[in-house]
Protein: UDP-glucose 6-dehydrogenase
Amino acid sequence: MVKICCIGAGYVGGPTMAVIALKCPSVKVVVVDIAVARINAWNSDQLPIYEPGLDEIVKQCRGKNLFFSTEVEKHVREADIVFVSVNTPTKTRGLGAGKAADLTYWESAARMIADVAVSDKIVVEKSTVPVKTAEAIEKILTHNSKGINFQILSNPEFLAEGTAIQDLFNPDRVLIGGRETPEGQKAVQALKSVYAQWVPEARILTTNLWSAELSKLAANAFLAQRISSVNAMSALCEATGANVTQVSHAVGKDTRIGSKFLNASVGFGGSCFQKDILNLVYICECNGLHEVANYWKQVIKINDYQKSRFVNRVVSSMFNTVSGKKVAVLGFAFKKDTGDTRETPAIDVCKGLVGDKALLSIYDPQVTEEQVKRDLAMRKFDWDHPPHLQPNMGPTTATTDVTVCLDVYEATKEAHAVCILTEWDEFKSLDYKKIFDGMRKPAFVFDGRNVVDVDMLRDIGFIVYSIGKPLDPWLKDMPALA
Ligand code: NAI
Structure:
């Protein structure tokens, strides 16, 4: 029986290993983590992450060929293949702070593997890492290896949160990079044979190590760039009377462009896009490619612009002040069907509104009050340095102008405005008449995800702003301050 151990029981490690266990009954899969609470949750009925379809798979495989454990060293020692799926956040201090990837967690995992291994192993980079990381990892492993043979593979993960199980079942591609030596290629084949249990061969791409590492950063940069491109257009649509939904539909019909990932919004979020682009920018700068670095940096600048443009629109529409006004925030997760709030645009929007002294009442079907408060008190880039790994990096300030509600109607009651910041399906079919009746007048809706039926809401009496859509006459008279 092949034994797989995955270090890191997070959004990638957990679902990916659950699917490998499901699809490969003859493989024993153990997911290990130093976060005791996270492992306890994986072993309970309340999994630590929300992902459609995940519960069923874990229930089916757990205790048979899928295990979650804090006995990191034991399971690494026993494994034939070790996936490393730890977090690789942006550095918050020192050389490259605010841009470079912080490989502290990766390096400590690699050193531990070298220390405890007593047999040959394939070590798989699952985390997103800077190109050439495998070389550094190889050095750590071989310098401490006691004659053990380690093969490093790069196998970046392309799943998207919210559709992780679907993406893992039916991936566009699986990418495996390895050394171009006979031993390297043997390791590539070994990992390929795991995925080949359910992924068609033609979709399993093999490359050299550096292409695999760079492809992940490139893919995220291209995806984020599409969002920033359509968001840049949304600002021009508002200025000209064009409708961004119609523009992106027309643009996306060109088969060279394609229709996916062209929705205008308040901005992209999630743990990866910003971090990976910053990392790409840093690598370009280190290689003297300043024009290339500046090109990609612009994708993040437009994203920041989009978030502040939204806040400015809210404030300017409401007579240039939200001080003391209740503003209901619907949705806090960075996208629908996940409870993940890392780098969610809601953080910057909420901080912007609180900065203008608004009183926020926040509702999200999957995000807890504790999480919201922690996020709003966190400093930039600290969000992906979990407290259990960085004991000195807890929240900095408590936020008192924020309440978290368990119900939309309670959140919107007596509010002056509603801001929709996540595209949860349930926000499409709320009783907006009831919401309107309970609100202060004039009642505003600022739709940062284009989920509401603008005409219907205007008929009810709302003043509606929807990103990139022709402006309400009221808003035309109150130009955004951006
Ligand atoms: P995460 O933060 O949810 O999980 C990482 C886990 O690793 C944490 O539970 C942490 O306690 C654990 N860990 C850290 N150091 C450890 C060590 N030395 N020993 C044992 N456990 C340790 O992170 P997530 O979202 O799963 O991301 C992991 C990697 O995958 C990152 O590099 C990310 O960029 C990449 N990625 C993430 C995607 C996503 O949608 N979240 C998609 C594709 C790639």
Summary: The CA atoms of residues 156 and 216 lie 6 Å apart. The chain has two domains: 2-199, 241-476.
